[in-house]
Amino acid sequence: MKHTVTEALGSLVAEVDAMIRPLLAGGMESLGDEDLVDALAIGGRMLRSIESALVLAVDEVTRRSESAGREERLSTRFGCRDVSEVVQRSTRLSATTVSRMQRAARAVHCDRTLVSGALLPPRFPATREALLAGDIGIDGVLAVTGPLAGLEQRVGRDLMFAADEALAATARGEGPDSAPPATADELRMHASAWAVALDQDGSEPRDHEALRTRGITLGRVRNGIVPIHGGLLPEVAAQFQRISDTLALPRGGDDTGGVRFRPDDELGHDGAAPDDERTAAQRRHDALATALFAAAASATLPTIGGAAPTLLVSVREADLVAARGAAHADGIADPLPIGAAHHIACGGVIQRVVLGREGRILRIGTEERIFNRHQRRAIALRDGGCIIPSCGAPAAWSEIHHVIEHSRGGPTHTDNGVLLCWFHHRFLAHHGWQIRMVQGVPEVQAPTWLDPTHRWRRVTNSPTRLVEAVIRRT
């Protein structure tokens, strides 16, 4: 016979289903703004209550699966290898979600005395009460207890209880600043502040551990992609995030800058043409590529064998001219697409090496440096940054592209060079933008989907040139 608690929960689910399904059938679109937000708040309250029940259930399943004899464990008797599998199969949730439940359960777990079996206070009693009251859910429990984990031995239980009480009050909206009930992210911020205040010396061992475990590992090439794994120090991650924020987000603008090519009624809700369909992860990849290539070209890195760290790419001249075949990069076993060789050759140093049939080196040409620093400064003043409208990559992070390819006789002259970010330079042949030079000034033609008129338009991000254009119109 089912226990009363199980029956009550089953009846509750049936009642909720019976009430919610007709509402959902009508659709949320019928709700007004205030009712829609109220629905979110009520749903969140229900979710927190359900999560509190799940956390307590996981805690009890864990307790019953800890006996010394494997045959006596609850997990074994239900044919599962461990608690995680029991919960996954019972709830049909992912291993990641179940792992978060288990961490929350450990945080609010109450031990029992050996003699009477009475419950002992948990490490975070106020957080446990907030969970049972529905003030916080799993996210809230982890936000509070994560930053404070491991501090008890160094700061004492009294200070830990004080932090726990204060954070629970913040979760309820009863904190000293009279702010409304805190979100999980806000609770994590407050908990981190408490951790720093309570343990002034705690950052040092964490720093040592971080220095020990930091690292990046490059995997083997699979399907043209090299997997990357590892962890960054916080300040390195912050710097990378800053670079990503600068480079990876598309910028909007008006038609005076050559950004808007569609009629107003064909634009997106924000008034900008959706000309960048990269995912956030792809944008971060391209931002990292930009930073790496810019650093390599900056002449500030240590030298290797007397030369700057240079990416060595080899390709048959006939393949480069014909845009077929493959190229090869030093240190990577798999071949590169010919487009990558074109990109690197356009913005880097070319040295022609003539080999005989048997492989003997017959002739070594001198290095041809593409666009010297004086030319680059002049082009940067003229273009201001990547010339593709709405890109927004600044000049310092852009590469110089030969409008007429160097391999096809294009001169290394300011009249033949334009600024492009790494992404637009690398995939220029794929995203539909056309570039030409008219009397030393770059013009672009947008892809057909963006501008059906196929008009050529002068473009620049140079503040001086933009001001001059405005003055001419007034």
Automatic annotation (TrEMBL):
* Organism from which the protein derives: Microbacterium pygmaeum
Can you name this protein?
A: HNH endonuclease
Span list, region Disordered: 249-281
Q: Which UniProt keywords apply?
A: Endonuclease, Hydrolase, Nuclease
Report the residue ranges that make up the HNH nuclease domain in this protein.
Answer: 374-426
Q: Which Pfam families match?
A: DUF222, HNH
Q: Which GO MF terms does the UniProt record name?
A: endonuclease activity; nucleic acid binding; zinc ion binding
**Family as reported in the entry's similarity comment:** Belongs to the Rv1128c/1148c/1588c/1702c/1945/3466 family.
Could you tell me which InterPro entries the record lists for this protein?
A: DUF222, HNH, HNH_nuc
